[in-house]
Amino acid sequence: MTRSEAGTSQDVSGTQETGLAARPSRLRAIVDIPEFGVIAACVLVFVIVTILQPRFADAGNLQVIGLDLADYGILTIGVGIVILTSGIDLSPGSVVALCAVVSAYLNVNDNVPVGLCVIFSVLIGAVIGFLHGWFVTRLDVPPFAITLVTLTAAAGGALALTSGQPISGVAFFYQDITLSKVGGVPVPDIIFVVVAVLAWILLERTYIGRQIYAVGGNQEAARLAGIPVKRRLMLTYIISGACAGLVAVMVIGRVGVGDPSVGSGWELDAIAGAVIGGVSLYGGEGRIVGMVFGILLLMLINNALIVLNVNPYYQQVALGLVLGVAIVADRIRARSRGQARPRGIPIFGARGSNPKPGGEPASAA
Asked: Is residue 247 within 8 Å of residue 41, measured between CB atoms?
């Protein structure tokens, strides 16, 4: 063998070794994606349940899952953005009920044009979110406390306004929103995708989004870095409230009435979906993609239990178990990355770990 042939042979073998080494690295890169676990879980649940009960994958059932995903998914995005700041919003379910009955009441009893009723529903949710943000930032009321007040008051207000009876005779426009399709895709799912994309752009591609992450990671460091902490907190609660108002419009179309009893317990599903998707209860960590697949996994599990004729009471048990696993995984992931446990209880508004004396708040930049 000549020297040139030997050199060529070594080059070929080296290239093969490099190619073999590159495959595991690419595989590791995929596995290291924060949302890999929840995406894999969605695929696994879908495949297993379809094998056990083929009608789980029927077009009609998938459409039901899609409609559920649109409602709960929009709430999850709103609540998830609040959790990113180490806050919490317990009111979305009750806000949905209040906005739904107010919108239906204005349309049926006061003959307000349906377009304005839709706008009013979103605005009412946004105003409630603004009030949450004002109490949290101006009076330093714990997010858990003020949103718990709204959870009770909004639900009571919806029942008081309607005397506990659904408001029927709403405009057909509401139902058109839910029943219409564009290219075979239900309009609510399109609305959900639009909301998810806008939220992704806000968090991933804007300076405001980076500031929201910084506030969730460490409010004091964010303040020292010149970030308007109060305004960013206010914005997240407004977004959460507006999302609830939007869902209220979609719910009216789905049930055909302004029902004051809708939304009960939805805030728990929204919080669970965000946490399952990788949003840290201590703030500063989580992405929209994870929130979407987190609530999708929850909807798949809930629907699977129905299709498999599992006792409805066990659905809440399953939700609790999945949420518990997600919370434990969140803490394990944080410890593996060497993140210290922030001071304070997250649901009462943890402020993040205090910066070290003399240290630069570079993480908030």
From this structure: no
Q: Do 299 and 68 form a contact (C-beta atoms < 8 A)?
A: yes
Q: Is residue 9 part of a domain?
A: no
List the end-to-end C-alpha distance of the chain, in Å, as a whole number. 60
Q: Which domain holds residue 203?
A: 59-351
As a whole number of angstroms, the distance between CA 217 and CA 277 comes to 18
Question: Residue 131 falls within a domain, yes or no?
Answer: yes
159-206 pLDDT, tens digit per residue, is 999 999 999 999 999 998 888 999 889 999 999 999 999 999 999 999
CA angle 345, 349, 355 (to 5 degrees): 85
Does a structural domain hold residue 20? no
Burial-class residue 6 by CB neighbours within 10 Å (0-12, 13-18, 19+): exposed
Instruction: Yes or no: say if 300 and 62 are a contact pair by the CB < 8 Å rule.
Output: no
Domain count, the chain: 1
Domain CATH number, residue 113 = 1.10.3470
Write down the pTM of the prediction: 0.86
User: How long, in residues, is the chain?
Assistant: 365
Tell me how far apart the 2 most distant CA atoms of the chain are, in Å: 96
The C-alpha atoms of residue 66 and residue 54 are separated, in whole angstroms, by 18
Residue 2 lies in a domain: no
Residue 283 is inside which H or E element, if any?
Answer: none
